[in-house]
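@channel anyone free to eyeball this complex?
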Amino acid sequence: MTYQNDIEITPKLVADHGLKPDEFDKIVALIGRQPTYTELGIFSAMWNEHCSYKSSKKWLKTLPTTGPRVIQGPGENAGVVDIGDGQAIVFKMESHNHPSFIEPYQGAATGMGGILRDVFTMGARPVAAMNALRFGAPDHDKTRHLVSGVVAGVGGYANAFGVPTVGGEVEFDERYNGNILVNAFAAGLADTDKIFYSKAEGVGLPVVYLGAKTGRDGVGGATMASAEFGDDIEEKRPTVQVGDPFTEKRLLEACLELMATGAVIAIQDMGAAGLTCSAVEMGAKGDLGIELDLDKVPVRETEMTPYEMMLSESQERMLMVLHPEKEAEARAVFEKWELDFATVGYTTDDLRFRVKWRGEEVANLPIKELGDEAPEYDRPWTPSVPAPALAEGDVPQMDVADALLKLMGSHQIASRRWVYEQYDTYIQGNSMQRPGGDAGVIRVEGHPTKGLAFTSDVNPRYCEADPYEGGKQAVAEAWRNLTATGAEPLAATDNLNFGNPERPEIMSQLVHAIKGIGEACRALDFPIVSGNVSLYNETNGRGILPTPTIGAVGLLPDWTKMAQIGFAAGDQAILLVGAPPRRGTHLGQSIYLRDLFGRRDGSAPPVDLAHERRTGDFVRKLINEGTATAVHDLSDGGLAVCLAEMAIASGIGARIVDLNEQDPVLQDFGEDQGRYVVTINLDPQGDDILNLWNEAESLGIFAPWIGTTGGSDLVLGAARPLAVSALKAAHENWFAQYMEGAAA
Amino acid sequence: MKSAVIVFPGLNRDRDMIAALTKVSGTTPAIVWHQDTELPQVDLIVIPGGFSYGDYLRCGAIAARSPIMDRLRERAEQGVKVLGVCNGFQILLEAGLLPGALMRNQSLKFVCREVKLEVCNADTAFTRGYSQGQIIRCPVAHHDGNYFADSETLERMEGDGLIAFRYAQGTNPNGSLNNIAGILNARKNVLGLMPHPENLIEAAHGGDDGRALFSGLLGQAA
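replying in thread with the prediction:
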């Protein structure tokens, strides 16, 4: 085979690599000559948006990333947070949006594979997964195909790998018609003294390639993910990788076994931009050079060029720097698991990244600059123009019972059972709250009482109307969902999905959302420890709704006290903790407006972070002291939907007393923030409840009694009683019927 | 009572099974790697669930042809009790230790949910912790659990009391014939079942309906 490494680098070739002319000039200035073809590929892999964060870095730096429990913040494969007793939770969320739109099953599967690998690369055994999925309008002709492929892909990978899916999100909106979002989250447990990092240390040490063989799949995937979609989308299918969960499962076991031998100095998984990114990262972080010999790389196809090998995104591969004296022991572990093990290079002391192939040097680049000198942009952004509030008295009317029944059976609120029953939610034997509640909960295996709660949240409608408030709200809602189980919120990971940052109005969304996220994280002591940015989520120039997904983790000191959303029993008092004086007031951007009246107007509900915090702390106290018998936070669809979900989960009804002189629509469907429905087993006329109210009042929290649980109907004030069974039928049936072809 | 768990690459409920056996009996089972050539002297051998060899061929087909399965067959012939759960059940079928086959779920989708099981024969070493006709809760999680056998075989199995568990109360998740969830061999020392009793043995699981299978087998009080 002849390989032309010194071909002429034309402006078209540069553009095809996703590099701008000034970026190419920077490369030439940096290395003092024209790059070779392989080198151009390496630069495009390192300098694309997906790997370099060139548009977002300036703003990501403003996020709070430290805290007393944070062992490792952003910059490694995943964040690491101390959970006491010498253990840590290792977690991250990452997008696989573009591949999943092109090839939904494999795109979603490899997204799951990638995030699981990020977690076990750090020495953690994955214990929980979630996925936040956003699809186009239900009646769009591609939506069913994408839903069915993505869900099967997530399940196909996570189920075979053996990690329980404990939660997630599924939303539909026409703004995702041409660009769906697949954000995968994984968390693993590790001992705090056995965390593994990507920083190489020591000169002349073996760089070892582990796992699956390298093929041509995914060549240029990261560059593809950094561009908008046009009508040529189908041609991009070869850039999607193919997942092999069987190999990943063996890779997990082999890596954990190998780490236990003490052989591993540094480890980095091969994700986006494969061998290039992993080798450069290990060397650059350790102030070392790396020399690779591509003839040693296990390949599954013949005649692969150095360019293809360096840019392949074949899955289930790892790169490690090992203690040379342990190499034989390490090899034996990988042979036991029937995985490839090959020494493909060495660390050097000259800070160069050298790639050899058939005795020829095909690349020789400065390793630090490849990563550190990536372009960083301060892209222009327009001022935020939040959507104006609804006019006073603009409350479109509908019969409250009809409205609730309709919403429970609508695409936004309907049960996601059709989705989560395709995921293994029991495996590992630690699942304590499976999908369907406020947060997924697992116990910490081996500990008598400790549990962990997981949630994923964002409200793209609010972010579109007001990116700053929407960013705050995403963090607050995640914090609230963890709180509603009784967990202490620990830390979060952010997966920022936006359109083309080269458009100032999109950049504005990104900037303001990050500002809002940072503000909320600071106010709630809820640091961001890992994350991912996905930009260029556009098709033919139309961007998605701004979607900064927040994945978050909380710690339950005692899972026996955990709260759930189902009413515990009849005849219990229902409190609306954190209510404004008139219970519910804010209809702007609500599901009531959007899904019943086709209106997307009004301001996003504001989040009062100080109020949020004291309300959440109070709710958590009610749970931990055993006063609360059921808890659910209010979100889409407001109080009515919240109560209906609590009734459906338990089969127990409730009777709510309307507040006089307030429109029932606002009370029932307003989406004011920072509110929880809490049931308590206290006499509403007794002293205990008075003490509770006194305490709430002293904290500045309004927690009015709004009704009583019991019966088989949900009765909202003067509205027609609704049988819980009817609400349940509406809630349960929509998704399956839709997927079987019923009209959306 | 001593037990052993055989692990093939790609199985992933081995840890769940080991935890259940350990928690119920107080003794950790022996772990047998698929490349081991001998089985330890034990009273119960378990093949847990998962995706052996990725289930890229027919589920369980590759594992069923491992050399360790010949040792297992010898032990089963000697009367040692053998339990296969989910992929373990599929492997036992492929190995010919149990009759019939497991096809893709009728829905063509992976299904994970809680179902109800009826104990159809409580007079076996595996089911003695239950009463005849008892209805228990149990999780399922599989893609290929749709049991099939020819009518002659089915009739013989029904007549000989070889149906150990049936999906009850309309909860059949996969379309299996006669609602079959678990079956025995003629000698009743080999049980294969699709549901996961190992995931419902303690308060943290939200119930312990699966526990009696292990406590009955392992000679412990339920």
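from a first look: The first helix of chain A runs from residue 11 to 16.
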